[in-house]
Amino acid sequence: MDDPLMLARLQFALTAGSHFLFVALTLGLATLVAWTQTRATLSGSAVHARMTRFWGQLYVINYAVGIVTGLVMEFQFGMNWGGMSSLVGQVFGAPLAMETVVAFFVESTFLGLWIFGWGRLNRWLHLALIWVVTLTAYMSAFFILVANGWMQRPVGYEMRDGVAHLTDLGALLTNPTAVLAFFHVGFGGLLTAGLFMAGVSAYHLFRRTAEVDFFRRSMRVGLVTMAAAVFPVVVFGGMQFAYVQPTKQAGTAEAVAAEAGFAARFGPGDYQAPGLAAAGEAVMTLVWSLLFLLAVAALVKVPFGRWLVRGRIFHVVVMAAVPLPYVAMLSGWVFREVGRQPWVVYGVLTTDEALSDVRPGLIAGSFVVFTGLFAVLIVVNGWLLARYARRGPDGARLGAAPPSDGAVPAALTPTF
Length: 416
Known about the structure:
Elements: H1 4-43, H2 46-79, H3 82-116, H4 123-152, E1 157-160, E2 163-166, H5 169-173, H6 176-206, H7 212-239, H8 253-266, H9 275-301, H10 305-310, H11 312-321, H12 324-338, E3 343-345, E4 349-350, H13 351-354, H14 360-391
Antiparallel strand pairs: 1-2, 3-4
Keywords: Cell membrane, Electron transport, Heme, Iron, Membrane, Metal-binding, Transmembrane, Transmembrane helix, Transport
Pfam family, one: Cyt_bd_oxida_I
Family: Belongs to the cytochrome ubiquinol oxidase subunit 1 family.
């Protein structure tokens, strides 16, 4: 607890990694909810309308808690990383400002209209709202990855008086480390949401629910989404290796040359990627292989609806697999972020230079508070998702008409 740099790094790793868990499910689930509402609007299908309400309620829960984690996480830039804000904030802050406008103004506003406009707005307008919410969610993710991509591969800037200045917005926005990561994360979100939808459906089918048609359709949508996303995830992930930092490739000629160059520019130091990065890459690859096998099994199962309903062993496998995309995402994030060390901005700014000039006790205190807060938020989110998922479609209050007598619906009455 006496090393402020390690505490600050660990704090940001825990909070950023935790926040990313919410983002992945939000991205994918928003897309699936928009798709089911489109089906319901175009066809007038009652089951797809119920699917929209049920899965939409779970999406709103995850989104609401995820927004809180994002707000808390961004406080750290000013608290712990003042050197980063001072030296590269003019470049790094530009995409973050765009993300703030998109996420906290546009996306949140349209989501509120979608939630409270149910039954009050024209059905086509209401459908347009959820698509705006979905598109702005992806825009928000893109701008975040633009900022992160610049940290991985700084482009479109110049240093003047020791401060980075943005000179080419186009280069910043089209940085391959950002664009490829965006598609990688986007398909990863669809994979996560698809398996989440399939896992919840498998739970109800395993328990022999009366809502067989509802969860059979939901499971099919989830499995098809997962199977469609699992291969693009690895394709866009693999394409990023063309831009991976040489120091992540220990022992190669490129790594030796990069380390010698850094030593000449910045002085002697350890410029090799930590061993934890390689472990993250190995875990990510292993978990993707398991997901690929599950996707193959899903493609065999999906055409035969009765197998989706009766395959109890398959139900257990799908439920057990729900955490796998999260494991893959976190291990991939470790490879991408930890492997960049000792740099905050690769080849430009080290973590030591980016650290704020604060006492170790303050960072230790914020570490305890932030870690505790995020732990509570993760537990609350998991509890709420599990509680409302178990209730099934009849327990969904999203879009439900208020009771005519003004009484509080039973599903909204708190139970202790």
